[in-house]
Amino acid sequence: MPGVDHCLQEAMAIPGAVGASIVDYTTGFPVATTGAAPNSDHEAAAAGTADVVQAATSRSLFVSALPHDLLEDLIITTAGGYHLLRLVHTDFDSRLVLYVWLDRQQGNLAVARRRMQKLADELVAT
Amino acid sequence: MSASKTATPARLLTQVSADRQTGALVVGGHPGGAVYVLEGRVIYAESPAAPGVGELLTASGRLAGRTWQNALDQGTSTAQVGRLLVEQGHLTQGELELCVLGATYDAAYFTLAPTMAPVEFLGGATHWLGPIAHIDPAAVNREVRRRTKLLDDIFPDARVDTAAVTPVARPPRERVTLTALQWELLVHADGQRTPADLALLLGRAGFATIQELRRLAALGLLELPEVRAEAPEFVRLPRARGTAVGVPRSAVRPDDVPTVPVVAGVRPAAPSPPPLPSPALVEPVPAEESTANGTVYRPPRLARRKPGAKLPKEIAAEPPQTHPGTDEVLLKRIRTALRALR
Question: Fold for domain A4-124?
Fold first, then answer.
């Protein structure tokens, strides 16, 4: 049975992954973490992740353009890496996002995005 | 293990975990709650202000109430309700873990945030859900402090967290933008429901609920509770009404009815006489009631009022102290305690 730890292990198996976490984006709290984090601080990274997701969901108009047009993922590219945020939609009330940090040289954005989609779905799928 | 004493719940949790103990840290007060520790690691927490795993899963429709109840019936005695749900295929391991983690941090906030509360550690107590998560207590305490600060950064008024939610009738601005959860809260706020009631009703995390309520309060969309609704600075004694017990009654009795001593004997000898209305407002006792045997004592009645009319000022007692949600909180604490015994 894939649990939270298993999900993070799988995320680290994505080519180029250097760190992964599951973040509660209402509070900016890292529910589970593994590997490296920007500035070696998973808690600060989680708080930053939450800010970005909040900005996209509640302070921008992208996700309210159409009814039921839910946010799927956010991708931030920097010169040195890719930061992928995938929303985990659970049936019960939670606001969780799967975050994976990829090395720019070794990471492949398209592959990583598809793998994360699968992971986020498997985590909560029956 | 240790008797109930007033202490800082978070500090006691640190002590208990340093000794790698197993049991339940039960915190009293409002809202109170319990944190379950297994060999020094936090496995679950519950509080009346935060919906538990069962409420979250059933309120959202993720599990049918019957499925949840079945799992409770089968797994409570052996403390493996969570494992049963996964083994029977009702939930994935990931869902269960995420739900437990969310509910635990949520309840831990309400349980551990007070700086002083009656605290008791019940050694050996386990939770019927079974150990699903194993969280470092230091992380829990850190997160509780962080959440307290998050709320105060939004709107530094803790009364919003507990008082019945009343939206303002007229928004103080022309244009209002709400998030989906804020909308849900406003639609279901009826001036009676407290934040804890709303969280349970909607199956939303307790902290997320008060976070949005603080945001709404900051926007000026909520009526703020009265400044000194409770905690008066002095104890108010009941007003003296009438001079002596017998005097008003004998004054209003029709003259033809003899005042027999039995009347006085029937009255219960209460240490403090019940407040009697002033004579002017007492209805004369109808003749037929007293003529039957002459000894029937009828407590003086007030003149009939219109529905909804207030009691006359002289008679109106202090309004009974209302603690919204007290019963519910009490029932939940009893439930928590009973579960701990199983």
Answer: Beta-Lactamase (3.30.450)
